[in-house]
Specification:
The protein is α+β, with helices and mostly antiparallel strands and about 140 residues long. The protein folds into two domains: about 10-65; about 80-140, no CATH class. It contains four helices and three strands; from the N terminus they run αααββαβ. About 30% of the residues lie in helices and about 20% in strands. It has helices at about 10-25, 35-40, 50-65, 125-130; strands at about 80-90, 100-105, 135-140.
């Protein structure tokens, strides 16, 4: 993946090219999704600091090129689909809200248990919600509104 260079003829085109490559990488490198999302928000008004951030993300991707999704064997016959979402509001650097969604496959520690829709999580329930999970889908779309 090439770094962005200021001496190129069309800096905006090169910035978009590096951003496109980074977007492709985010399908398996969830550790850079946030940085790439911030860069996307700046694509039409990119400044030197944005170019430096893009270069640092490229360096991170290259430095940890062995990082990838690895699916381990589940030790249980029972799994469940888990969906986690979060959202941000608009900010000074980004004039739109953004949502983050992860869909994962997890060991079903709750099989045979009744779960209330609202409950306080103690150490026991936190442990039951955790454990081995495989990312099936991730996305971070802009929210309309």
């Amino acid at each position: 993946m090439p770094k962005y260079h200021l001496e190129r003829r069309n800096p905006n085109s090169e910035f978009r090219s590096v951003l496109g490559a980074l977007l492709w990488v985010t399908s398996t490198r969830l550790d850079v999704v946030s940085d790439v999302s911030l860069l996307q928000a700046r694509v039409t008004v990119a400044e030197i600091r944005d170019i430096k951030l893009a270069n640092s993300v490229v360096d991170k991707v290259k430095a940890y090129s062995d990082v990838r999704l690895h699916y381990r064997f589940f030790g249980s016959d029972h799994q469940r689909v888990v969906c986690v979402h979060d959202a941000s509001s608009a900010s000074k650097g980004r004039h739109y809200a953004q949502e983050g969604i992860l869909v994962m496959l997890a060991v079903d520690h709750w099989r045979g248990h009744q779960i209330d829709h609202e409950h306080i999580c103690d150490d026991y329930t936190v442990a039951k919600h955790g454990g081995l999970m495989h990312v099936l889908h991730s996305q971070a779309p802009r929210l309309k509104g």
